[in-house]
Amino acid sequence: MLPGGFEISFQGMPLWIAGPAAALCAFAVWRYYRSLKAAEFQPAWLPAALRGAALALAVFLSAGPVVKFDVEREVSPRAAIVVDSSQSMMSKDGGAEERWARALGAAEEIARALGGKTTSFFIASDAVRPLASAEDARALRPVGPESFIAAAPDEIAKVSDIPFTDIIILTDGRDTSGARPPALGGPRAHIVGFGAPFPSFNAGVSELSMPEYGFEGEEFEARGFVHVTNSSGGETFDVELHDGGARAAAATVKAPSGGGDARLPFTLSHKPSESGLRAMTVKIMAAAPDPAPEDDSRSAFVDVASARRRLLYIDAPRWESKFLGAFLSGLEETEADVLLIGPAGTFKGAELRRTAASARALSEYNLVVAGAAAPWMKPAERDALAEYAERGGRLIVLGGRNSLAGAGGRWKSSPLAPGSSAGDAAGFEATPTPTGLSGPLLRLAESEADNRLIWKTLPFAQTFSRAEPPQGASVHAEHPWLNCGARRCPMIMDARWGRGRVLLFAFDGLWRWKFREREKESAAYDRLMSNALTMMLETENPAPVRLFMSAREATLGAMLSATAHVEPDALAEGETPVLSATAPGEPAVEIPMKPLEGHAGAFSAEFVPGRAGVHYFTALASGGASEPRPAAVHASPSEFRNPGADEAFMKRMAELNGGTYFAEADAGNVAAAVKKGAARERASVKKSLWSMPALFALVAALLTAEWVARRRGGLV
Q: Taking the alpha carbons of 463, 465, 470, 475 in that order, is the dihedral positive or negative?
C-alpha cells in the first residue's frame, strides 16, 4: 500500500517468470549498448536507453498490473417514502379530505421530484409494508390499529435490503407505542407533518359492555365510558342507545369543571320488545365540534330470546360435573337443572329422577347434556333419553368410561354405537377435521392460525367411546391414528337421531382443559362449551347456503374470516360462491370465495373492514343466498384518544437524524432538501493498466524513437 490509498498488484505473468524475463531484457540491452559503442555510435546510451525502456514497460504490462486508489464522490440519493396508514390518518381536520389522501398526494409529488427510480414506497402502522407505488395505496384504507412511527426505519431494514440515504415519513406524529424519537445512526429522516397540532379536543365511546343474551320485556344494562381528551371543563354529552336504528335509551354525562382528560361512566337501560340478534349502538352527541367522529359510536349485539331455554345436565359426581355444572348454572340465557347420580344413589337433584324416566317430561327441556352416569341410571331413564332424542330432542353426550354412548337398550341403535370404551395410556389429541375447522363449533380463537395452535397444545385425552359415523354425520375432530370402521374414530361428531340431533364428545377428560385455563388463562373449555350450546340450541337452518363469521365484533383493520357451506345443487357446474360485504353507508363489495381444502361444499373468504360500524355479510350462489350475518367494527381507542398532530415528536425525530421537519404546506420542498444534502463517500477504484492503450502506444513510441536515432546515426 502506497500513501494516499494507492496500491498496485499483479494479476498476469507470475513473478517467477517476470523476474528472469526482466533480467534477460537487461542483459540484451547491455549487449546492445556494447555493440553501439563498438560501432562508435554517438551517443551510444540513447538507443540503448530507448530500447531498455520499451522492453521494461513491455515486461511490466505482461505481469498484469492493477492499481487501486481511493476517490471521493457524491452519493446519489436513494429515498424510502413512508406514509402513516394508522387510523388517526382518517381525520379530516375540518376539511373535505382525510390526512391519508393528502399524504398520498404529497408522497406522489415527492417521488416525481426525486425520480421514480430513486424512491421506494412503504406504508406503516403497527407494521411496515412495501408497495410498488403510492397509486397502489389509494386502493387501501388507513386501518392500522396502532402507530409505531419510531420503529418504522428499523422495520424498513427488515423488509428491504436497499441502502437508503434518506427516509421520508408522512405522518401526524401520533406514535402510540410510547417510544421516544430514535437516533437511527444511518439514513437521514425527514418528517412531513399532517393535522392540526395537539392538544385537540376529542370525545369517544370506550369500554362498552352489555350482555350477550337478553329476553323480551326484560331490562338489561349497557355500560361504558365517554373518554374526553383536552376538555375545557364542564362540557355535557348526550349518550344514546339505539336498538336496530331506533333510539331506545339516553343519558347525559358532564366533564369535570377543571378540564383536561376524563373517563365519564354511563349506564343505559333497555327492555327489548323483539327477539332475534339485535344490533345495539351507543352514540355520543358532543356539544363542541369533534375532530375525530370515528370513535363517537360503538356497537355490540344482544341475542334476544322470547324466554330462557331449559337445560338438563345428567352426570356422576366428578371433576367434569363440577366444572360443567358450574358453567351451565352460570349462564344468564338458560335455566339449568343438574342431576348427579353415582354408585351410592342420587347425589344431587333427587326430584329430577322422575323427569329423567319420561320422554314426555324430558321434552320440556330444549337440551339435555348426558355425562358418565350410565351404570347408575335406571334402564327406563336411559331409554327415556333415547326416546327424547328420537322424538326431536337435542342431546349432548360426553364419552369415555361410563358414557351413555355404550349403554344397552335403545342406545344400541343410536348413531353413537357401538360406544365401547377404548383408551391409550400414552394419551392422544383430538385432531380437528376440515369440517371442524370450517365451522363455528371448534373455533377457540379469532384467527385460523391461533385456533390451530390451541388445538395442538390442549391436554391429551386417554379414553374415548368408539363410534362408527353414520351416513350424514359431521365429524368435527377425530382420533389421530385409530380407525372405527372405514375411517378414523370420531372424537367430536354430530348426527341425526330420529327427528332429533345428538352431539358426541367421544373422549373423556375435558375437565383437564379447565385446569389449563386456570394455569395459562386460556378460555378453551368455556369457549368450546359455549359453541356447543349455541350450535345445539339454534334453530336448524335448512337453507342451501349457510354462512359463518369468525367473530361478531372486531377492531377496525382486523381480518374477518367467512366460511360458507353450500349444498351441491345450489351451485352451477364450476361455480364458486361470492361473499357480499356491506359497510355502513357504502355499496356492497363482492369477494370471490375459495374452496376449503379437504371439505366438499365449504368455501372461505377474508375481509378487512375499512370503516367503523355494523357490517353485514351474505354468501351468494346461483341456487340461493345465506342469511345475513352481522359484525360490529369499532375504531382503535388509542388512535383517536388524542387525534392532534404531535409536532414535537416529529421535529425531534428529524433533528436527531440529520433531517428536516416540514409542515404539510411545505411538502413540495422535501425533494430539494434531499438533493441538497446528498452525502459524499470515499470509494476504492481499481484500474487494470493492461487495458490502457496509451501504455502500448508508449512502447511503440519508444521503439520508434530508437529506430529514428539509429537511422540518423547511419545504422539503418
A: negative
